[in-house]
Amino acid sequence: MISPSQSGATICGEPFKRRTHYRKCMVRSLPTKSRRMIVARLEPGEDVLETIEKVAVSQGIRTASLTGIGALSKARLAFFDRDSRTYRELSIDKDVEIISCVGNVCINEGKPMAHLHMSVSDESGSCHGGHVRKGCQVSLTMEVFFIEAAEEITKEKDSATGLNLMNI
Q: What is the pTM for the complete model shown?
């Protein structure tokens, strides 16, 4: 793994200098290339979050973006409340279509961790969305495309937000 200062990382278009450099501007970027694409099909009964992380481990994925579509028999989503720094849970215990699932896999505490957001729709067309939690159960199938990055990106707990943020 290379450090942000060695990798061409930029903050506000300027080369990364030191950790406190970001205080001038919030945006950070890290140039990388796509290494490969991995396609996975989840089976009925599988947990979305757990299975995506298992695929990452079995395929040696350290950092990737991903997208997915499919169907769930139940969904567990959440909304992050900034004031309390906790997630508010939403449980949907019926069949729903995955309209969109997007996210990433990065290394957290030495292992691949998936961070996913999902929009789902029920039979009436009502939509719900949020952060994917354990308990999203595949009903028919879920098709996932991973685009692996050439550079490894880690995540660390940010003391200001309480979230695991990309270390770039």
A: 0.82
